[in-house]
């Protein structure tokens, strides 16, 4: 009995997963095909130059790493019915703290770099926990609670840098976080992959994922079942804050400087976009870290595609909007039913006796 | 009063995914009459009204409007046929004026412009027609809910309504406002309109209605002229006296309930302002205590206080001989109190999650997120309870929203049975579910109490309460008025008498 159940479990889970991921994957495949058609297979296949991978697609992944970190955290927050608008500002704060600290220290010392990174991460996590506390304990709407730091955060970053742009020299080990490679693979890709794996393990081998989905899917039912939603909520905002701080560190390491005004500007919107493209609904509940990853790669590939197909860079926002529109439409059951109706009805007429397990939600005959 | 009926509904049947919401129900409306549709929660009142107003289409039966068979496909279609509805929540735009609300979408025009002068004049005439003189140029939000409701009624009447349905219009009104509303209703009836009045305030029904149709469990109990049906008989009809064809699940007091000793749970002066007056109640191990009363009597509110779902602001609660402080769902679960709330969809289940996940939710919540139930153990538990409760389809990975009501209820029961609670609180566990699942759940309650679990059981159906309970607490008007404990008292008649007699004494 339990053997057959676990078999079914595997199939049921995978089936549901595949359904959600199918459309984003199709869109990604289409984008890749367009690029390969225009620029040839070199687009996908990486070369090895100076002991490191290079090539268009590897660059896309490397540049998308900060966005992926933020989008992964955002996925967990959105699963709880929340949202975190402050991630771009926290990105700037993380970058500012790390660079400003290194400005006044021995930049070539490994110890100083490790301390700078740890300090930036810790403060970013504290900011995330603060957001979570406002949402969980004081009942502030997530969009309002995080809007405060979205606005104030860049000001804080400016206070940290004193209005200047602190720089870190090219010889510092710090910049390796953004530009280096380990075993030919760029460091940002390693870091993003490690965070992805850690979050998947954290949510799916513990009960955190299920409880997040339960709190986001039906807060009142979760409360009555005894779920401690406050602690869970603070935890996910904390994770998101830390992810945003880490993203800022990677960005600053790549540039060798921290720009409090423009670092990570509008990245919160791209992150939300990636989450939605990946199949996680903004109303909370089920979440898909793999889907979010696909969403991030789509966004990264799209920016390159616009240039590759010869459109001017002014097209960037419009093209992005069009792709988002397409993904959103493909994910809408109403739209799919409308498009597929001519085919469906013919099939239904052919086999009217097919016993379909109707997923009709129970309409309770309430009086 | 014996005019040709304007509306005749005959043999109306409606199914929702395996649950029969209406089973061959008749309703006859005559011009100039106010007709009450009476029944408890889940009796089928709303469904019947929604069939009449075109929201649902019936699976069987026919509707005659003025003698002609009709089929309404949408509320707009029904409205065009002269059937209008005014709901409890006013369906108007608050920031527009009364006149604009009255004529929204059909404004009197002067070329391309709205003729505000004519609109105000006609609006004032319309309101004074129903006996309400107000400034129609003022925004709707400047008037009370009662007046807003009257505006909604005036609008419905002006769109040539032959039939006007009022669904719980008085539940948020005070006494004087109710009087005005009832006066307007009588006036409309006198002008030849047929009115349907749905309300759980029996005194208002008796004051205003000419006839009533009583539903129970989706079936027609009968139609009576108000004057011929005393209140006690009406309550009896609504709550049900005949023993149904369910398995006779007989469990009787005394055989399982030990008298005396410390009760497992004891509430002393437990209450919450605006929800339930302070009450005393003891529940012993192995005992089933029923809560009986009409809708709105406070039975749910009492259960929620005991479950920790709502915070009490008066009295004390003792569990297992110890005073309880800081009562909330989590601490209650830790003590061994399980609570299946009244509305399983909004307060019980997480629809998107699977059957298995919903089942283990309370157990996992008590362990905390870091200690997941091992997958093998989890599969074993879920399979065991799916088999034990006969949950169908027996697929643990199906989203729980796809299950029928009865199976959803079983999933909810399994969630609490997994943590082996000492007290299980069931609020309307059998509402809106099919007869088979109902019998299963009743049998389960009997078994659990035989094993020593205490159960607090709420149901709108009295025969169910009397069949299962060792003692029955009777509520009326948000007050616990009596606890019946003699075996001879475990009858629906006795409960109805208790409700009626206390009501009369006030």
Please state the CA-atom Rg of chain B, rounded to the nearest Å.
25 Å
What low-confidence regions of chain B span 5 or more consecutive residues with pLDDT below 50?
242-247, 252-257
Unreliable runs of chain A: 1-11, 346-367
Task: Work out the count of structural domains of chain A.
Answer: 1
Features:
heterodimer; A: 367 residues; mainly alpha; two-stranded antiparallel sheet; two-stranded antiparallel ribbon; 14 helices; 3% strand; disordered C terminus; B: 506 residues; alpha/beta; Rossmann fold; 2 domains; six-stranded mixed β-sheet; 17 helices; 22 strands
Please tell me about this protein's structure.
The complex is a heterodimer of chains A (about 375) and B (about 500). Chain A has helices at about 1-40, 55-80, 85-105, 110-135, 140-160, 175-180, 185-205, 210-215, 220-225, 230-255, 265-275, 290-310, 315-330, 335-350; strands at about 45-50, 50-55, 180, 185. Chain A has a two-stranded antiparallel ribbon with strand order 1-2. In chain A, strands 3-4 form a two-stranded antiparallel ribbon. By secondary structure, chain A is mainly alpha-helical. Residues about 1-10 and about 345-365 of chain A have low confidence and may be disordered. Chain A contains 14 helices and 4 strands. In chain A, helix 1 runs antiparallel to helix 13 (about 315-330). Chain A has one domain (about 65-330). Chain B is globular, with a radius of gyration of 25 Å. Chain B is an alpha/beta fold. The longest helix of chain B is centred in the middle third of the chain and has 16 residues, at about 175-190. In chain B, helix 5 (about 145-160) runs parallel beside helix 6 (about 175-190), helix 8 (about 230-240) packs across helix 17 and helix 12 (about 355-365) packs parallel to helix 14 (about 405-415). Chain B folds into 2 domains: about 5-240, 3-Layer(aba) Sandwich (Rossmann fold), CATH 3.40.50; about 265-505, 3-Layer(aba) Sandwich (Rossmann fold). Chain B has a 6-stranded mixed β-sheet, with helices on both faces. Chain B has a 6-stranded mixed β-sheet with strand order 18-19-20-15-21-22, sandwiched between helices. Mean pLDDT of chain B is about 85; it is low at about 240-245 and about 250-255. The chains are: A mainly alpha (about 375), B alpha/beta (about 500).
């Amino acid at each position: 009995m339990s053997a057959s159940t676990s078999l079914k479990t595997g199939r049921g889970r995978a089936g549901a997963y595949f359904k959600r991921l199918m459309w984003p994957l199709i869109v990604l495949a289409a984008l890749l095909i367009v690029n390969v058609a225009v620029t040839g297979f070199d687009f996908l296949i990486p070369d090895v130059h100076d002991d490191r991978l290079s090539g268009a697609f590897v660059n896309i992944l490397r540049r998308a790493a900060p966005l992926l970190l933020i989008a992964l955290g955002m996925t967990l927050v959105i699963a709880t019915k929340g949202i975190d608008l402050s991630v771009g500002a926290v990105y700037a704060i993380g970058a500012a703290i790390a660079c400003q600290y290194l400005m006044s220290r021995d930049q070539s010392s490994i110890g100083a770099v490790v301390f700078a990174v740890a300090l930036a991460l810790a403060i970013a996590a504290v900011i995330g926990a603060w957001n979570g506390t406002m949402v969980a304990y004081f009942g502030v709407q997530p969009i309002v609670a995080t809007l405060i730091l979205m606005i104030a955060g860049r000001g804080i970053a400016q206070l940290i840098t004193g209005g200047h742009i602190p720089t870190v020299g090219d010889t510092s080990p710090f910049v390796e976080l953004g530009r280096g490679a380990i075993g030919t693979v760029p460091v940002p890709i390693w870091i993003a992959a490690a965070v992805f794996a850690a979050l998947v393990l954290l949510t799916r081998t513990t009960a955190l994922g299920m409880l997040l989905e339960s709190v986001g899917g039906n807060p009142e039912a979760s409360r009555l079942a005894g779920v401690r939603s406050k602690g869970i909520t603070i935890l996910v905002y904390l994770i998101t804050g830390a992810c945003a701080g880490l993203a800022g560190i990677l960005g600053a390491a790549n540039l060798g400087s921290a720009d409090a005004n423009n670092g990570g500007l509008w990245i919160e919107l791209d992150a939300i976009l990636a989450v939605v493209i990946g199949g996680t609904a903004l109303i909370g509940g089920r979440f898909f870290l793999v889907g979010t990853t696909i969403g991030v790669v789509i966004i990264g590939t799209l920016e390159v595609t616009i240039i590759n197909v010869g459109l001017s860079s002014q097209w960037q926002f419009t093209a992005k909007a069009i792709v988002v529109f397409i993904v959103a439409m493909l994910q809408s059951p109403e739209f799919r039913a409308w498009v597929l109706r001519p085919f469906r009805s013919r099939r239904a007429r052919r086999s009217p006796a097919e016993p379909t397990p109707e997923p009709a939600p129970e309409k309770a005959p309430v009086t | 009063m014996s005019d040709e009926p304007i509306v005749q509904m005959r043999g109306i049947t409606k199914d929702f995914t395996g649950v029969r919401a209406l089973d061959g129900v008749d309703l006859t409306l005559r011009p100039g009459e106010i007709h009450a549709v009476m029944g408890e929660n889940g009796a089928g009142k709303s469904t019947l009204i929604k069939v009449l107003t075109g929201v649902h289409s019936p699976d069987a039966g026919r509707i005659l409007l003025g003698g002609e068979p009709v089929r309404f496909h949408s509320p707009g279609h029904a409205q065009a046929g002269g059937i209008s509805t005014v709901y409890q929540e006013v369906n108007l735009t608050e920031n527009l004026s009364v006149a604009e609300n009255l004529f929204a979408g059909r404004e009197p025009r002067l070329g391309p412009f709205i003729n505000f002068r004519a609109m105000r004049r006609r609006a004032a005439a319309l309101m004074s027609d129903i006996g309400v003189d107000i400034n129609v140029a003022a925004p709707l939000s400047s008037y009370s809910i009662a007046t807003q409701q009257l505006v909604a009624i005036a609008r419905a009447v002006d769109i040539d309504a032959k039939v006007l349905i009022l669904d719980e219009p008085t539940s948020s009104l005070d006494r004087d406002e109710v009087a005005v509303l009832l006066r307007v209703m009588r006036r409309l009836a006198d002008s030849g309109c047929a009115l349907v009045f749905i309300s759980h305030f029996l005194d208002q029904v008796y004051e205003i209605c000419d006839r009533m149709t009583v539903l129970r469990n989706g079936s027609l109990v009968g139609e009576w002229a108000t004057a011929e049906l005393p209140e006690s008989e009406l309550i009896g009809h609504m709550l049900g006296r005949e023993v149904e064809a369910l398995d006779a699940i007989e469990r009787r007091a005394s055989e399982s309930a030990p008298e005396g000793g410390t009760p497992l749970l004891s509430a002393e002066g437990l209450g919450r302002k605006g929800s339930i007056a302070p009450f005393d109640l003891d529940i012993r191990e192995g005992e089933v205590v029923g809560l009986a009363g009409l809708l709105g009597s406070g039975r749910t509110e009492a259960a929620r206080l005991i479950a920790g779902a709502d915070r009490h602001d008066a009295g004390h609660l003792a569990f297992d001989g110890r005073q309880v402080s800081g009562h909330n769902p989590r601490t209650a679960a830790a003590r061994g109190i399980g609570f299946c709330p009244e509305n399983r969809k909004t307060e019980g289940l997480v629809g998107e999650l699977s059957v298995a996940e919903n089942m283990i939710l309370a157990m996992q919540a008590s362990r905390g997120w870091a200690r997941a139930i091992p997958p093998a153990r989890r599969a074993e538990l879920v399979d065991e309870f799916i088999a034990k409760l006969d949950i169908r389809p027996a697929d643990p990975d199906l989203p729980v929203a796809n299950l029928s009501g009865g199976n959803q209820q079983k999933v909810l029961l399994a969630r609490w049975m997994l943590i082996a609670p000492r007290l299980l609180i069931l609020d309307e566990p059998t509402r809106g579910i099919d007869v088979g699942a109902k019998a299963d759940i009743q049998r389960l309650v009997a078994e659990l109490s035989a094993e020593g679990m205490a159960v607090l059981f709420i149901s709108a159906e009295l025969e169910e309460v009397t069949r299962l309970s060792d003692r029955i607490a009777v509520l009326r008007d948000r007050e616990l008025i009596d606890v019946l404990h003699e075996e001879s008292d475990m009858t629906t008649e006795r409960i109805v008498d208790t409700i009626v007699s206390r009501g009369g004494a006030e």
